[in-house]
Structure formats: structure tokens, C-alpha cells
């Protein structure tokens, strides 16, 4: 009987030792985790600004790795403008145990579904460019947004037009009626920036005491081709009556410029064109004199904030220590006006 008890005791001791060793091995394996995995879901990869932001994000990884002393892996998934596809991509990031998830929503009004999933999985989530409604942001305190102030963008765009009118009224006011006749290229109607940029660009011009007349407006969905088609239609309808083309972004402005060039109305022969984003194409058109100005939407600054918050959260740190611009759950990266006077400065900034 004593031998049996002794044998049982030895077996129990061996099992305890094995369990302790397994526990230590699990701890060791956890401690060996030296990298950070970040999933990025974008609404569509053929959007010029989002493409620029993703490139800036990838360029910022090396500096972040050197600072942290560990590998940072960023996986970018393109939803191709499908919310259901984006939901699946987020599910995949969660299933694979990513440390942080960054989302450029297809439909910003349904972000609650993604926030709920991230909260349940305990994975911090950073939205960018397409801002969720406040109620969805409030679901979880590990939810963040990186973007800009759309009102500021609209005001700066309007100010570029107002300044041009005051200094070049005789050139811009082709019919000499003292009114600024304009057409407006708008982004997606569901995108908050489109509505606000449109409103405040015109309000700013009016505040400067300039009388305006809207000839036409249309939705180009941020894209070049639809804007080109709209501009061709407006040229056919209004021709030289168009004195200013206001565009919610540079990519649509590029479509308008293509139509103006085809109709011999570019540069000094036609209306001035103003956009928002400060894309490479936009800056190039300013250099060529085919675009009056743009408003720099700092893709690099936004990418650095996104990466900073994601890495800080992945390491269990307060993201505000990494990104001082973070106010509560939000980062608003400032805009800058760009014209022929300072365009080279922004070209140099982009090329750094």
C-alpha cells in the first residue's frame, strides 16, 4: 500500500512539473513575440489620395522599426468599394490575431459593426479619412480617428479663389459683370468631407465680398473620369461663362483640366481650377500653370499618426505619448494652401 502511495505521489509530482514546464514554455513563447502586425482596410486602392496615404504609411515603417527595435508588418487590403468585402477583411485580421486594425470605411455610417467586433476581440481600431459618426466612435475607448478638418480645407480653397479674384479680376471675370461664375465638382454625397468642403469653400468666397453665381454642380465621386465627363458637359452648356472650377479634390480637378485642355480652355484661356489634397499631379499642374492652387491634405502626417497610434496601442502604451496631437479619440492633421508662390516647398516635402 505504501509503495502504491509512493508511486502515485511520484506520478503527481511528475505531472505538476510537466504542467509547470508547459506554463513556462507558454510564457516564454509570449515573451518571444517581437513584432507588431497591423491590418489596414481601405475603401478602394485606385483613389489617388488613399494610394498616397498608403505609400506614406509603408515609407514610415522603417523609421518606426528602428525606433521600436522590432519588426512592424502592415498588411493592406483593398475593399474595392464593397462594405461586405471590407467586413470580411476585418474579420480576417481579427482571426489572425493582428495587434491593431486601421480602417478607411467604405460606408462611414456603419462603423458600429466593425467597432463591436474589434471590442470583442480586444484589438484597438483606428479609422482614417472617412470619419464614423460620433455614436460609433463612443462604443469603445480603444477606437480612434485620424483625419483632417474638412471645414478648414473648404475655407482655404475658397480663400485661394478669393485671393486670385482680387489680384486677377480682369483676367478671371471674362464677361466683366463683376460676378464670379463657377461650377462645383463634388465628392461622394455620403462622405462628410464632400459636403463640408463644398459649403465652406463658397462661404469663404462670399465672406470676402465677392458676388458668386453657381452655374452647375455634380458628383464626381472623387474620381477623374466622372469629373472629366461632367466638365465636358458643362463646357458644352456654358463654355466661356465658366470662370472658376471648384473641386472637392485634386483628382476630380485633373479630370476637369483634361476636358479644358481638349477644348483649348486651359491656363490663361479658360477658368481657374482649384482643388484639395496636394497630390503629385495637382502640384505638377500648378507648376505648369494649369491649376491655380490646391489645399495640402497631408498624407504623410496622417500616415505617421495612424502608425504611431497603432504601434502604441499594440504595445499597451498610451497613444497620446506617441502622438501628442491626439485629442481624446481624434487627430486632426492641419491643411496648408498651395499656389505657384509656395508649390516647390510642398514638392520638396513630399520627396523627403
Automatic annotation (TrEMBL):
Keyword Cytoplasm included in the entry's annotation: no
One cellular component term from this protein's GO annotations in UniProt: outer membrane-bounded periplasmic space
GO MF entries: carbohydrate binding; metal ion binding
SUPFAM superfamilies: Periplasmic binding protein-like I
Coiled coil feature spans: none
Keyword tags: Calcium, Metal-binding, Periplasm, Signal, Sugar transport, Transport
Primary localisation category: other
InterPro entries reported for this sequence: Bact_Solute-Bind_Prot2, MglB-like_PBP1, Peripla_BP_I, SBP_2_dom
Taxonomy, superkingdom: Bacteria
Record's protein name: D-galactose/methyl-galactoside binding periplasmic protein MglB
